[in-house]
Specification:
Helix content is about 0%, strand content about 50%. The strands form 2 sheets. Strands 2, 4, 5, 6, 9, 10 and 11 form a 7-stranded mixed β-sheet that branches. It has a 4-stranded antiparallel β-sheet with strand order 1-3-8-7, with no helix packed on it. The protein is built from no helices and 11 strands. The model has no long low-confidence stretch (mean pLDDT about 95). It has strands at about 5, 10-15, 20-25, 35-40, 45-50, 55-60, 65-70, 75-80, 90-95, 110, 115-119. It starts with a strand and ends with a strand. It has about 120 residues and is an all-beta fold. The radius of gyration is 13 Å and the shape is globular.
Length: about 120
């Protein structure tokens, strides 16, 4: 059974940095891609960044050049390094993945970690 546990969120001032972690169990990074989503109050979750099983990454326009997705196979952990944070980055952040055959919309989610950026 695949389990995902996010951590690393918290309060930060605008312009600051945070690094989110998503500890995985029962998942191989080579099996399916992984992603970070975020959710603003009252809105649907939106894709922040995705890393494919074979390595390519992509980012939403709003975070491109500020956020970096990566994973450490030995630590079984997915990361999201967030720099130059803005107040509009305040949200609940979730990591997600799927099982083979790897649906476009992930079906396995963590419980989230909250990021709060103040001006």
């Amino acid at each position: 059974q695949v389990q995902l546990v996010e951590s690393g969120g918290g309060p930060v001032q605008a312009g600051g940095s945070l690094k989110l972690s998503c500890k995985t169990s029962g998942h191989r990074f080579s099996s399916c891609g992984m992603a970070w989503f975020r959710q603003f109050p009252g809105q649907e979750r939106e894709l922040v960044s995705h890393i494919s099983a074979d390595g390519p990454t992509r980012y939403s326009d709003s975070v491109k050049s500020r956020f970096t997705i990566s994973h450490d196979d030995d630590q079984k952990t997915l990361y999201l390094e967030m720099n130059n944070l803005k107040t509009e980055d305040t949200a609940e952040y979730y990591c997600a993945t799927d099982r083979p055959p790897c649906a476009d919309i992930p079906t396995i989610w963590g419980r989230g970690t909250r990021v709060s950026v103040s001006s």
